[in-house]
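Table S2 (continued). Query chain:
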Amino acid sequence: MQRQWRKSTRSSAGGPECVEIALDPNGVGVRDSKNRTAGGLDFGVAQWSRFVDAAKSGTADRR
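Corresponding output:
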């Protein structure tokens, strides 16, 4: 199955913050929308859920 990518609404039009995500039954893919051929990161459903919860609560580690 080919992923359907969508650009984050938080991505800037021409700036450095350009992120796309693709949801599928196995989890979530994340990639740089300015460099789509460079690959991306894959997260399982549980991993993505923990990340979203941490981001929403402000407890995500910002290193």
